[in-house]
From TrEMBL:
<protein>
    <submittedName>
        <fullName>Polyketide synthase</fullName>
    </submittedName>
</protein>
<dbReference type="GO" id="GO:0071766">
    <property type="term" value="P:Actinobacterium-type cell wall biogenesis"/>
</dbReference>
<keyword id="KW-0436">Ligase</keyword>
<dbReference type="GO" id="GO:0016874">
    <property type="term" value="F:ligase activity"/>
</dbReference>
<dbReference type="GO" id="GO:0070566">
    <property type="term" value="F:adenylyltransferase activity"/>
</dbReference>
<feature type="domain" description="AMP-dependent synthetase/ligase">
    <location>
        <begin position="35"/>
        <end position="436"/>
    </location>
</feature>
<dbReference type="InterPro" id="IPR020845">
    <property type="entry name" value="AMP-binding_CS"/>
</dbReference>
<dbReference type="InterPro" id="IPR045851">
    <property type="entry name" value="AMP-bd_C_sf"/>
</dbReference>
<feature type="region of interest" description="Disordered">
    <location>
        <begin position="1"/>
        <end position="24"/>
    </location>
</feature>
<keyword id="KW-0276">Fatty acid metabolism</keyword>
<dbReference type="GO" id="GO:0005886">
    <property type="term" value="C:plasma membrane"/>
</dbReference>
<comment type="similarity">
    <text>Belongs to the ATP-dependent AMP-binding enzyme family.</text>
</comment>
<dbReference type="Pfam" id="PF00501">
    <property type="entry name" value="AMP-binding"/>
</dbReference>
<dbReference type="InterPro" id="IPR000873">
    <property type="entry name" value="AMP-dep_synth/lig_dom"/>
</dbReference>
<dbReference type="GO" id="GO:0006633">
    <property type="term" value="P:fatty acid biosynthetic process"/>
</dbReference>
<dbReference type="InterPro" id="IPR042099">
    <property type="entry name" value="ANL_N_sf"/>
</dbReference>
<feature type="region of interest" description="Disordered">
    <location>
        <begin position="611"/>
        <end position="634"/>
    </location>
</feature>
């Protein structure tokens, strides 16, 4: 089986983005073109859960266009006040979301994809924040949710917001005649939709994606993925997340293809359904964060792969969280017998502020891996690995598409040479117009200028390096751990912990630093989930958890020279994630300091324990049945 390519660490060559001329000016133009050329072709197929199986619901280009015109007409008829106010979409992940989203384009209104606030807690709070931040003028939802959404709007202090039910059950309304639709006058610079950031390090902000941004990035995706006309794409990603929306839903529409969808819950419950979708519909392109591939390797059985043929797959993007070389290798190894080719897996880098895609791997070659010296990486340099020292494996996220990538020292603002790690800055037609109603953060992030005078750059807050034109993403500035002059990446520590014992859940860790004012220094904390049944139940052996915590401390002392690490062991599901699967380390740090984590066992350094509301296990029922272990100060 072909192996991943090993990247050289010599001979740097700065890659230049290739401009592409959009074949459509707007998404509406793309869909209307599809209606003219192949009205009966399936634009979307949605797989509903139906007992143990999945039941398909199809939507042709002609029907998609008709339903979008109905939504646009209803929006126009029901509009109150300023039609410039955005429209919030609150739908379950079905075809009704797609028609509502496209209906906003047909109406010339700015759409906001968002998760349905059908449960209390973080999701409800997040959508409430979006409602207030965006000054929403209308909400679209399904008839079955309209009453509850209306009550929520009233409780949220927004009774003036129009709440419209869309979907097949509403098309008998007098204002639902698709022939009443009038194409809106839309400028390239108009905001097509607001993509609210995942909020992995701060509260969500509405990224203003213009029609020109969307056209540029869809063309960049088409060129980078070599997307053929009429492509079939398939995904389980949330439709309100940029990778699921722009990459897996809108890209097929852009080229007159078909998008096959299932809900994230369907995938999480039975990961083999994703692979079966690829087989059944001869899917050519798909995407997932790293954890999706890892989940398939771990949970898909031999019985479930019987008769499975994945040879149709051309592109399987891996992005939205750190891409792990081990996951890529394991996925290729596990499903090679089903016709999966190594070059299909494409590590990528993207973010909402660049509409979506920044860079991706080569569709005709296996992914590129780089073995670097760990000590040099801690000092922001990519140097060849040495046999006598620790090394790290980095995965290339490929070459930039239509976006110019600069690597800049975040303090001096000087551009760095190839092989040096700095902040990733972006320039190009896919870079969004800024944050909605936030002139300060927009000026700070979207109008940066290097010390050499290159302006109009977006500061991503991500760290990385360019080498031989390839982009290597190493972490985030806000999450970097600075210990004794060394820069440590939390994801490297998390992976080392999870690789060290079967009891630790993959992807279920968060590493961060807390400050000790008394000593003017920071201390590293590891929060790690246990696998279900691995010491997390009532029958756990009393000595297992302290032993596991001590093993983590010994590992990190030996591997990373971290002599005083605090370890917190928790049940599965405690680690908070964004909608794309990114670990919310900043949030986890705050929950830890607030004493809000449901702890199974803590092994804390005394300075860290002193920062918490209480460390007495008798006063901390969440810590039962295990005991706290607190090291003495000094």
């Amino acid at each position: 089986m072909p192996q991943a390519r090993q990247a050289p660490v010599d001979g740097p060559r700065k890659g230049q983005p290739v401009p592409h001329q959009p074949q459509h000016r707007t998404l509406t133009d793309a869909v209307r073109s599809g209606v003219e050329q192949h009205p009966d072709r399936a634009a979307f197929v949605y797989l509903h859960e139906d007992g143990p199986g999945l039941r398909p619901e199809k939507l042709s280009y002609a029907e998609l266009d008709r339903r979008a015109r109905v939504v646009a007409t209803r929006l126009r008829q029901a509009a109150k006040g300023d039609i410039g106010r955005p429209v919030l979409l609150l739908h379950p992940p079905t075809l009704d979301f797609v028609t509502a989203f496209l209906g906003c384009f047909y109406a010339g209104r700015t759409a906001i994809p968002a998760p349905l606030p059908d449960e209390p807690g973080e999701r409800l709070a997040r959508v409430g924040t979006i409602l207030r931040d965006a000054n929403v003028g209308a909400v679209l939802t399904l008839p079955g949710y309209r009453q509850a959404v209306g009550a929520w709007l009233t409780a949220a202090g927004a009774p003036d917001v129009v709440c419209l039910a869309t979907g097949a059950d509403t098309e008998g309304a007098t204002d639902a005649d698709p022939d009443l639709w009038v194409p809106p006058a839309v400028r390239d610079t108009d905001v097509a939709f607001l993509q609210y950031s995942s909020g992995s390090t701060s509260e969500p902000k509405g990224v203003m994606v213009t029609h020109a941004n969307l056209a540029a990035n869809e063309e960049a995706i088409r060129a980078a993925m070599r997307t053929p006309p009429g492509v079939v794409a398939g995904s389980w990603l949330p439709l309100y997340h940029d990778m699921g929306l722009i990459g897996m839903t809108l890209q097929p529409l852009w080229v007159g293809g078909t998008s096959v969808q299932m809900s994230p819950i369907s995938f999480i419950k039975q990961p083999h359904r994703w692979l079966r979708m690829i087989h059944d519909y001869r899917v050519e392109g798909t995407a997932s964060p790293d954890f999706g591939y890892e989940l398939c390797v771990r949970r898909v059985t031999e019985e479930q792969t019987a008769g499975l043929d994945l040879s149709c797959l051309r592109v399987a993007l891996n992005g939205a969280e750190p891409v792990r070389a081990g996951t890529l290798r394991a996925f290729v190894r596990r499903f090679a017998g089903q016709g999966l080719r190594p070059e299909v897996l494409l590590p990528s880098y993207g973010l909402a502020e660049n509409t979506l895609l920044v860079s991706s791997g080569d569709t005709e070659s296996p992914h590129l891996e780089l073995q670097v010296d760990a000590h040099s990486l801690e000092r922001d340099e990519l140097r060849p690995a040495r046999s006598d020292r620790a090394s790290r494996t980095l995965v290339s996220c490929g070459r930039p598409a239509d976006t110019e990538v600069l690597i800049v020292d975040p303090v001096s603002l000087r551009e760095l040479t190839a092989g040096r790690v700095g902040e990733i800055w972006l320039r190009g037609p896919s870079v969004a117009a800024g944050y909605w109603n936030r002139p300060g953060p927009t000026a700070e992030a979207f109008a940066a200028t290097t010390a050499e005078g290159r302006g109009g750059c977006f500061r991503t807050g991500d760290l990385g390096a360019l080498l031989d034109g390839e982009l290597y993403v190493t972490g985030r500035i806000k999450e970097m751990l600075i210990q004794h002059g060394r820069n440590l990446y939390p994801q490297d520590i998390e992976q080392a912990v999870q690789d060290s014992a079967e009891a630790f859940r993959r992807g279920g860790g968060a590493v961060f630093a807390v400050s000790d004012p008394a000593e003017d220094r920071s201390h590293v904390v590891v929060v790690q989930e246990l696998r279900a049944g691995a010491g997390a139940g009532a029958g756990a052996v009393d000595g297992d958890l302290p032993r596991l915590a001590a093993s983590v401390q010994a590992l990190l002392s030996r591997t990373f020279q971290l002599a005083a690490v605090s370890v917190v062991l928790v049940r599965p599901g405690v680690i908070r994630k964004t909608t794309s699967g990114k670990t919310q380390r900043t949030l986890m740090r705050q929950l830890f300091l607030d004493g809000a984590l449901p702890v199974l066992h803590r092994r804390l350094q005394r300075p860290v324990a002193d920062l918490l509301p209480g460390t007495d296990p008798a006063a901390d029922p969440a810590a039962a049945p295990a005991r706290d272990t607190v090291a003495p100060r000094g």
